[in-house]
Amino acid sequence: MSENLPADTPTAARALVPAAFGTSTARRGGVVRRLLRNPLGALSAAVLLLIVVAVVLAPLLAPQDPGASSLRDAFAGPSGAHPMGMDSAGRDILSRILHGGRNTLGGALIALGIALALGVPSGLYAGYYGGRFDSAATWAVNLVMSLPAMVVLLASRAILGPNVWVLMIVLGVLAAPSFFRLVRGIVAGVRKELYVDAAKVSGLSDTRIVARHILIVVRGPVIIQVALVAGIAIGLQAGLEFLGVGSGSAPTWGAMLNEAFQNIQRAPLPMLWPGLALGLTNGALVLLAGALRDGLEDRTGHAAKPHRARDRAAAVPSAAADSPAGQRAGLLSVRGLTVAYAQPDGSDKEVVHGVDIDVRAGEIVGLVGESGSGKTQTAFSVLGILPEGGRVSGGSITIKGQEVVGLPERAHRALRGGTVAYVPQEPMSNLDPSFTIGSQLMEPMRHALGISRKEAARRAVDLLRLVEIPDPERVVGLYPHEISGGMAQRVLIAGAMSGDPELLIADEPTTALDVRVQAEILELLRRLQKDRGLGVLLVTHNLGVVADLCDRVAVMNSGRIVETGTTEQVLHAPQDPYTRTLLDAVLDEAPARAPWEPREARSTTA
Ligand SMILES: Nc1ncnc2c1ncn2[C@@H]1O[C@H](COP(=O)(O)OP(=O)(O)OP(=O)(O)O)[C@@H](O)[C@H]1O
């Protein structure tokens, strides 16, 4: 077992992790710094801050009560006591601007709060889980978006009365779809990232995956959207007030515009102040949104994000079940496994048909077969992560004697990342680009084992040393884009080892790597397997890898195991025609192609 992890580490708590899962120390502060370095960003943030502070402190800053009027001073111009002059009722315009801002910005805040509260969680849920909720929510959102906002607001005013706060609540509901669609779209994309799949396989709960991997991706666009929607809410509210739709009882910038407009011939200046307040606030919001977008894009570019090739994530166990029928190996035993997918017409399509596989402690079993033969479906079944619509429709899977078919998700999760670990192909896609290597190793350990940050950091370095990464103290501080593919695969193996597993499921762990690195990774796997007595189920189509590494082989074709046996048996004396075809496809012994010659030379030779 691990020389780096304490032997008393509780099994259920060892849901450590493929490096892929953790997260945490994102580059906090980076966006804010970039925002402030951008002159427009800094200026717009400063203007907004000034406006908000002035409006919040209105009771202290306003020279007089916003409702106090002196008809004698109606339309008086700016003076020392009244820097913005007086309105048609002889009220101090500055005081009304400050107090009016509280109502205008407060109303926008309510609309924004409601839009966020409705749109973001529902978008997260719909994007992450899909299914019926997604369909129903998308339908409702399309319906709301098809309604003309101004007409709905006017109708609401007629029904609910001229209360601007109520109108802002309605506006919040109308704005919620923009957040829903934004968040749903992003989450639906991120959900398919390999590092999210890997996080699931490692045993992290959905809540934790959403909190660590999804929210961080959604955060930036939502912040930008907040700035835009706030501007729209302020504009719409002012527009309603300007049209005289508001209550008129409290000062707002829109109502002040309305009143000034009615007297524009007599005194044009009072139009300027509420117009200026609205223009400055909205302008600052738009510029801020743009600067935020630039800041976030800058950051994304920095932490270059690898992208997925969906449906390749999975580990697959295999094992040539050459043990006598009915006798089951101790570590992983699959018997009569069938996997089916529900079809739109209500029928089931079976894609795996009665697979038997065994993996014993301390042996490496290769699962080979061409693309589409069912290797991934078999592996997903063992890990309990079949995609939506798929289910184990028959058979039995035991891990250390425990039946896992029908196991509750929580129990399955405890098994994954603990007894069973997974090494995926495409190492880069399985690391979250937003977090350092150390963070991705540490966070799951902290979560699963309840250990301190310091202890987790120590273990992360030990794990990197275990997988022979030079200078691990430096590597823990690097981001995925700063390391090579081979090193990323070592990091993933380190993450898999952090749970001190007994069964390792490796899905084409070397396919994405160049030949030299492939050999190094295979050597590493072999060493770990020997040192720790691991059982390994290796999914591969590379018969060279099988010959080099595996004790036994299971050959899969069209959802069935067609041949199993020791590596020597299967490679040197294949019994099944399909196995022979696979071996024939390896052209090692085929005559080498003749070197190219110029056409004339060929004709001369001929
Ligand atoms: N979501 C799905 N719905 C219906 N059928 C599916 C689904 N996913 C996979 N299948 C079917 O299951 C079969 C086996 O797929 P699987 O991914 O296990 O193959 P594989 O051997 O792992 O191939 P590869 O090496 O390309 O990953 C496929 O041929 C496909 O027809």
Describe the structure.
The protein has 606 residues and is an alpha/beta fold. The chain has two domains: 46-62 and 91-302, Orthogonal Bundle (MetI-like fold); 314-426 and 502-586, 3-Layer(aba) Sandwich (Rossmann fold). The protein has helices at 30-37, 39-56, 58-61, 93-129, 131-145, 149-160, 164-190, 194-201, 206-242, 253-262, 269-302, 375-383, 409-415, 437-449, 453-466, 472-475, 485-497, 515-532, 543-549, 567-572, 577-585, 599-605, and strands at residues 332-342, 348-359, 364-368, 390-399, 402-403, 420-423, 503-507, 535-539, 552-557, 560-566. The protein has a six-stranded mixed beta sheet, with helices on both faces. A four-stranded antiparallel beta sheet has the order 2-1-4-5, covered by helices on one side. β4 and β5 (402-403) form a beta hairpin. The longest helix is centred in the first third of the chain and has 37 residues, at 93-129. The radius of gyration is 32 Å and the shape is elongated. The protein starts with 29 loop residues before the first helix and ends with a helix. The protein binds adenosine-5'-triphosphate (ATP). Adenosine-5'-triphosphate binds next to β2 and α12.
